[in-house]
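Sat 14:20. Reprocessing the chain from the morning session after the first attempt stalled halfway. Input below, unchanged.
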Amino acid sequence: MRAVGIILVILGALTLVLQGFSYAEREPVVPTDSLQAAANPHTNATIPLIASGIVVTTGLLLIASGLKTDVNRDMQPRHSFLNSSFLIP
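Finished this time. Tokens:
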């Protein structure tokens, strides 16, 4: 889960910095046989800041939950005297 959290934090931070992206589409303008003309209009896509914030927050929560499970796992004894096989007849 920590790896997913790290990826989400990185993607969220990138979207906060870039705030969107642009792309070009090739659209035919004049559909004739002998002459071909095309337009390349640029389209801007913006990503809302609230969406970026939600992605970063979710990533941080996943990282924190991954750290919490690691701490809980380390606090459990690896071998318990009561669970030893020599006590069971």
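Helices lie at 2-18, 49-75.
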